[in-house]
Specification:
Elements lengths: L5 E2 L15 E2 L16 H17 L27 E4 L10 E4 L7 E4 L2 E4 L5 H19 L5 H19 L7 H7 L1 H11 L8 H4 L9 H17 L4 H17 L12
Antiparallel strand pairs: 1-2, 3-4, 5-6
Organism: Rhizophagus clarus
Protein name: Reverse transcriptase domain-containing protein
């Protein structure tokens, strides 16, 4: 097998090739994170075997110590001892690694996939802290800046809210949680506008006033829009996801029929 980082002139016959014409190039390449998803351990072992062969073909090495395993088959209690999971790989001419041991994350831990944080147990604490941290950092950065109240509102609506919306794609926070997270935003707007701290926050949401986005209402609207887009999608996998979300809503609220048949 040829080293992919050795360049040879491909136009010359093998018997005419001069070894001195080979050009050796030293390269250090970092690959982005890869995610393997499977419904069984055997499926993961098969995919891990393929990845090891891929690494051999492309002269790449992976740090197995940094592998992370997320599984919903782990015990729900935090006191349970989490043991490493052994994956047995298929040996071949390209793979000489027989097994890989990975310590799974606790079911209460949050993990990131495509920039969005998930939690197998369904806990919202991590995302809640993230949202509060983003809002607090935003308020602390702009508090000393020489900006008018409308400029702060514009930055919040156009910069921070889309970021928070992306982080909360799979997590719905209550109105109380959203209010607590944006507490310092409200204080900042009042400070910049020279308003009293006792002024009710809903006044800022009026379009006739400052037009500050209500994070809770905006989040609900985003989730409803996503459901609407999924319901009208022609992609089969999106249609199946929509049916799954309907079943999840039906299960969570103990509705005996489809949520589409429930009258307001």
């Amino acid at each position: 097998m040829l080293d992919p980082y050795i360049l040879r002139p491909p136009t010359l016959p093998p018997n005419m090739m001069d070894p001195t014409l080979n050009i050796a190039i030293n390269n250090l390449v970092f690959m982005d994170d890869s995610t393997l998803i499977s419904s069984s351990k055997a499926g993961l072992e098969h995919m891990l075997s393929i990845t090891e062969e891929f690494y051999a073909l492309n002269n790449t090495s992976a740090n197995h110590q940094k592998y992370v395993l997320i599984s919903n088959s782990l015990p729900l209690t935090t006191t349970s001892t989490i043991l490493p999971v052994e994956f047995h790989l298929s040996l071949s001419s390209l793979n000489d690694i027989s097994s890989i041991s990975v310590i799974p994350l606790s079911i209460t831990s949050s993990f990131r996939f495509l920039g969005v944080w998930f939690n197998i147990k369904g806990s919202r604490d991590f995302v809640k802290k993230q949202i509060a941290g983003e809002c607090n950092s935003f308020a602390a950065t702009l508090r000393l800046a020489k900006l008018f109240a409308k400029q702060v509102v514009y930055l919040y609506n156009s910069v921070l809210v889309p970021k928070l919306e992306y982080r909360m794609q799979v997590t719905h926070l209550s109105a109380a949680d959203c209010y607590a997270a944006t507490h310092f935003i409200h204080s900042l707007v009042k400070h910049k506008a020279n308003f009293s701290r006792s002024l009710p926050n809903p006044i800022f949401y009026l379009s006739q006033a400052l037009g500050l986005i209500n994070l809770s209402s905006h989040l609900i609207q985003c989730h409803v829009n996503n459901l609407f887009l999924m319901a009208n999608s022609s992609v089969p996998i999106i249609q199946r996801l929509f049916i799954y979300r309907l079943m999840l809503i039906q299960f969570r609220f103990l509705i005996p029929v489809s949520p589409l048949m429930v009258d307001d």
